[in-house]
Structures are given as C-alpha cells and as structure tokens.
Amino acid sequence: MSYAKVLCVGLVGVTGHLVEVEADLAPGLPTVVLSGLPDTALNEARDRVRAAIVNSGQRWPNRRITVNLLPATLPKCGSAFDLAIAAALLAGSGELPLAPLDRVAVLGELGLDGAVRPVRGVLPMVAAAARAGISRVVVPLDNAAEAAVVPGVRVRAVDTLHRLVAFVRDGAPLLEPPSGQPPAACPGPDLADVAGQGFARRALEVAAAGGHHLALLGPPGAGKTMLAERLPSILPELDDAAALEVTALHSIAGLLPPDGRLLRRPPFQAPHHTATIASLVGGGTGLARPGAVSLAHRGVLFLDEAPEYTRGALEALRQPLESGRILLTRSRGGTEYPARVQLVIAANPCPCAKPSGDISCECTPLARRRYLGRLSGPLLDRIDVQVTLNPLTAAELMDAGLTIESSARVAERVGKARAAAAARWAAGGWRINAEVPGPHLRRPPWRLPADDTRTLRRLLDTGTLSARGFDRVIRVAWSIADLDGRDRPDVGDVDEATQLRTGSMA
C-alpha cells in the first residue's frame, strides 16, 4: 500500500479543525514534500519524523514521499502533527495496518529519539475532535490529563513512537490518563486584609456582583492594589462552559498547571505597565497568539499604575471591552479570541503621589490634569464604577481585621446576586448585569420609572453623563438591587449607582 490517511486536529486561534494527514509514497528520487499551508515548525517535521522513525527501530521508506494536510486552504501551525505524519508514513509503506487508527485523532510532537513530547492547545483540539464526531484520541502522556477533561472522548496516551507502533501492529495497550485528586488550592489574598476604605469595599462588591469595570483612584498606600488583587476571591467559580473556555485559552498559551485540570477560579492577569500592545491584546507573526485580555477571559484584567501604560496600549482595550471578543488579523489570516474581562485600573491622582493626597501635593493643576489625562475619556466612559480612595488614618490601620468582613462572606452575597441576575436574564443568554444591552434595559418590562431616574436624566441632559454612561449606571443599579435582595432597583439604588459612577449624588 502506498497511500495512507491518519486524522489529526489543527488550531486557528482557539478554534480546532479536523485535519486529514495524507501520505503518498511513489517511486522516484527519495524526498519528502509537505503541502497544505504548513508553517516553519511544521515544515521542519520532515526531519524530526525521519529521525524518530529510524531511532525507533523502524525502516525509513526511501521513496518519493508526499504528505498533504487537508483541508489544504486551512493554515497549519505547530508540531502537533508529527505523530500523525509518522503513523501515516509507516502505514503507507506497508509497515503498519491502518484499522486500529480508524476514526482516531492522533496528536503529538516527536523528538529525534522517538519520544512523544507534549504540545500546546490539546484541550481545544480534543474538544474540536469531539464536535466532529471523533470519540477516540491518542495524545502525549504529559497532555493526557488535560485531554481527559473533554467529556465523551476516550483518551489514550503514548510516551514514544515505539509504543504507538506496538499498539497498531501488535495490539499492545496504550497508557491510561493519570488519575488522582488535584492538589488542594492554596488560599489566596483575603478581603479582610484591607484596612478601612468602606466605600471602596462596597464598590468592589458591587462590581463583583455585576461584572462591572472598576477604576480605583487615590494616593499610594490607600489600598488600591490590595483591593484589586482580592477581587477574584469574591467572584464565584466558573461553570463548566466558562471553565472549558478559560482552560482552552491557557492551554494554547502553554500556561496550564501540570495536572491539566479545569481552571475553576476566575483568572487574574496583571501585566506590567511596560507591556506592549501585542502582549495586551495578542499578537505575533503568521497567526496571532492570545494576549493578557484573552488570558483574563471570564476573570479580571488589572492595570496598576494605569497612566504609565502607553496610550496606544490603553486605547487598544476599548473595542474588546465593548464586544467581549478581539479579532487579530495577521499575514496568515484572522484569529478571534474571547475577551470577556472585568477591567480594573488603579491610578495615583498626580505624578508626585504624596501619601497624604491633596494636602501636600506638589504638582501644578496642569500637571495633575495631564497625568490623569493619559486615561482617555472614551476609555473611562467604559468603566462603570469609578471611586476615589482617601488616605488611611491610624485608627483604620490599627483596627484592620477586627471588624472587617472576609472574602468568604462577601463572596456568598456576590454568588446570590449573580444567581439572581442569571435567572432574570436567562432568556437573553446573559449571565451578569454588565452583559445586558442598554436598549433592553430601557424597554418594558425592565424600564425603570421616570421618578427613579430623574437625577440620572438630568445628568444626561447636562452632558455630565454620556448615553453609554447612562446605561452603565442602570446596570450598576440592578447589581445593587441584586445584592440587597430586591427584584428591581429603586431610587436609592439608582442614586447609589450614580455616586459610584460620578463620585457625587449630584
């Protein structure tokens, strides 16, 4: 037999596609031709596969070899095709029967010694195979736990090419995915560690309940970073669908823990203020890789010292904050990644950033305006809750932890509020209040009475609030009502939401 075909899976962004690896062996000058839009790493597979086959004790076919990856119009990247190419070549040369690999997806990178090495993105690859009707996959041993997360798929693992050959030729058993309980999660930062700042703590709880973006302004040492780092501790765990999305993104980036378990905690990304645009939103040559905004999907993206970021980096976040997705176009095509994040920014009020705040500030009014002016109006308009923290007093600092609620207690209220919102908006497919479109909230039966929104309407008419800001205040009011156990916001909820947005009751 001079022709063989083995199934594999290719990734374009976070989306997997079933790929047929064809091998045709014909008489002629010995050479290997690889077609089907391979990238550089995949083009080099011809040398890796040849060495792996020879060093595994198999005979290399000295013939003209053509390897084609279907569909040929789909860009192929990475080294996950190595194992499938080797199996197709050995089957095409008559060394292996193909029946045991019928309707089996084979994934893995080959070392020159025949070892099968782990690859990135196995979780979305296996999920794509399952959607295509493939119920059996063979993956590298180090990726087996990750692949086993996908329901309805029988996962087997290999550590060497020789083991795969023994399975196909002689029926030798493959390796089972490792079993065992995942390690206990280490306790993270607790909200009880934050001294004082009752108003900011309330803002953090409201933001968590509705998934709202949050801006924390204030002098150094007031607790901005501590509050932001503790936001994930009061968020509920991810459900199955969200956990699969988040874990798939981290799998592509190569950031999964060794046990390959599903990521249940909302992710937290805090890039340094020197981060480039590509590191924030994603980038790279050929096909773009996910950036911090996608790795924080369904979690928190924290920008500390926000005015120190480049203007271009901050402005690049505006579109994904609205749409919850980001489309990156590069030379080899466009790649779309999810980016439904909760943005938290922290900033000092001025360049000198005196701990006592405005009292001893040495900056001119122009310098203060220029510093905070690095946060553009359109970006701030997308941030639902904007609060200013005051310097801590000695009494607040010494009483820390004595009467302050822990993250566990706050998380319980946030969980109930999110459950109420999810039940209310289930018909529209929205999970949290921040996802509900503004027009939906301005139409019956969700439209609030005119008396409850009178102050808000005045702010809109005077230009203090934009139309986007109006809708965001209404969403925050719904979150406040959910936290307090009410079916609908009242005038007090709208006024509190307005205060959290503008800093005053107006």
UniProtKB/TrEMBL annotation:
Record domain AAA+ ATPase: where: 210-393
Coiled-coil stretches noted in the UniProt entry, renumbered to this chain: none
Gene3D superfamilies named among the record's database cross-references: 3.30.230.10, P-loop containing nucleotide triphosphate hydrolases
Listed transmembrane segments: none
Xref: InterPro entries: AAA+_ATPase, CHLI-like, Mg_chelat-rel, Mg_chelat-rel_C, Mg_chelatse_chII-like_cat_dom, P-loop_NTPase, Ribosomal_Su5_D2-typ_SF, Ribsml_uS5_D2-typ_fold_subgr
Top-level taxon of the source organism: Bacteria
Matching Pfam families: ChlI (PF13541), Mg_chelatase (PF01078), Mg_chelatase_C (PF13335)
UniProt record similarity statement: Belongs to the Mg-chelatase subunits D/I family. ComM subfamily.
Protein name: YifB family Mg chelatase-like AAA ATPase
Native source species: Plantactinospora alkalitolerans
Lineage: Bacteria, Bacillati, Actinomycetota, Actinomycetes, Micromonosporales
